[in-house]
């Protein structure tokens, strides 16, 4: 399940269970910051892809 | 009386759900935090691999490293690069699986190996040229 799907599910829960609104709001914020994690992972994977082995001098 | 009983049952069910969701929320946040911290750490240390070839090339070009010294750095660097690749792959797998990377042995082992290899390349360049690559990102 992707972060966006989880956020959509939590937004639905916010409507269906108003008592849990503050809890779901916190969860949504946590998963929105997961978008930041995706950014961090993308930067890391880009760095990994950009690194090339060194070659011997002949 | 019947309505009161139903309300009581609903209250217990809701309380139970709330407790479970609260625990789940804390656990999810902790995992996401751990994943974010791990990716930042690895990215930060990985920056060293980006700068190392430029520094070593510069040292060779300026005559501070001989060809033999330069060539002695190459396999050590490539080994560090390989273990960095493995650590990134293991972290990505942990993130994709929604796991705390610190609890995934494949990631812990890959990170430990990368740290060993990173120290080797840092020490080698330092001993050959007196140039520190650790502080450069």
Describe the structure.
The complex is a heterodimer of chains A (58) and B (137). Chain A is an all-alpha fold. Helices cover 76% and strands 0% of the residues of chain A. Chain A contains two helices and no strands. The longest helix of chain A is centred in the middle third of the chain and has 30 residues, at 21-50. Chain B has 137 residues and is mainly α. Chain B is built from three helices and no strands. Chain B has helices at residues 2-61, 67-96, 105-129. The mean pLDDT of chain B is 84. Chains A and B meet through helix 2 of A and helix 1 and helix 2 of B.
Count of alpha and pi helical runs of chain B: 3
Detail the poorly predicted runs of chain A: none
Biggest interface, CB < 8 A: A-B, 26 and 36 residues
* Principal-axes shape call of chain B: elongated
The profile of the biggest β sheet of chain B is: none
> How many whole angstroms does the radius of gyration of chain B measure?
25 Å
Order of helices and strands of chain B: HHH
Query: Quick check: average pLDDT of chain A?
Result: 74
Helix percentage range of chain A = over 70%
Quote the beta fraction of chain B.
under 5%
Helix and strand succession of chain A? HH
SSE topology sketch:
The complex is a heterodimer of chains A (58) and B (137).
Chain A: H1 3-16, H2 21-50
Helix pairs in contact in A: 1-2
Chain B: H1 2-61, H2 67-96, H3 105-129
Short description:
The complex is a heterodimer of chains A (58) and B (137). By secondary structure, chain A is mostly helical. Chain A is built from two helices and no strands.
